[in-house]
User: Which sequence fits this backbone?
């Protein structure tokens, strides 16, 4: 078992790493307590928040929560329901009653078909982990312009930056309108050159998923200088 000294604010850990805990922090996500020791159970960044140590895991699946803003991809349809991939462990449902259109029974294809993307909000999650989404709300809609890029739900904080600083820089530099969803997908609208710049930054962030916030800011600066 490796020993990890919790002196730095963020540190890379792997399953089995023992975390020194002289200050008596609580164990959060990705951490288990074995007797008096805290031990990592996931690969990721060791973080601390309000007295709780947790692991911000790399490449973990998105877990939907009620109220989340998500970008979904239509995978199939039934008579009165669209089925969407939102990047979680289960497909999400969009009933025609929660769409923005006056849909007649069996006429779903007139509004969205397999392969279409939509900006939705998670309305509820039932006891069987069924996810129900809605498109009734300000800004929620079918995505018919721009492109959808993926950075992963674990990299959203790095993409946005502290108090939105990275996101604002990306918008100003590219001239694009950018909508960041909680499930790690990003809707980019703008000129082709600007969209390409944002996509290249997303790909750089994905290839350096173990970056902390300061390193992400440096990566953003480097990408802007290169483009």
Assistant:
């Amino acid at each position: 078992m490796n020993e990890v000294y919790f002196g730095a604010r963020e540190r890379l850990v792997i399953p089995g790493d023992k975390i020194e805990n002289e200050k008596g922090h609580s164990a959060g996500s990705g951490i288990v307590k074995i007797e008096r020791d805290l031990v990592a159970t996931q690969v990721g960044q060791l973080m601390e928040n309000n007295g709780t140590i947790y692991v911000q895991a790399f490449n973990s699946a998105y877990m939907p929560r009620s109220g989340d803003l998500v970008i979904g991809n239509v995978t199939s349809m039934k008579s009165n329901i669209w089925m969407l991939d939102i990047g979680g462990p289960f497909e999400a449902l969009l009933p025609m009653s929660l769409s923005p259109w006056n849909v007649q029974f069996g006429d779903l294809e007139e509004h969205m078909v397999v392969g279409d993307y939509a900006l939705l909000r998670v309305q509820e999650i039932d006891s069987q982990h069924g996810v129900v989404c809605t498109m009734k709300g300000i800004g929620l809609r079918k995505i018919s312009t721009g492109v959808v890029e993926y950075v992963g739900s674990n990299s959203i904080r790095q993409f946005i930056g502290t108090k939105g600083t990275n996101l604002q820089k990306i918008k100003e530099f590219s001239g694009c309108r950018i909508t960041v969803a909680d499930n790690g997908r990003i809707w980019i609208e703008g000129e082709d050159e600007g969209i390409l710049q944002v996509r290249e930054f997303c790909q750089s962030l994905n290839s350096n998923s173990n970056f902390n916030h300061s390193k992400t800011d440096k990566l953003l600066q480097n990408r802007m200088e290169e483009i």
The chain has three domains: 3-57, 69-143, 147-226. Residues 1-9, 209-216 have pLDDT under 50 and may be disordered.
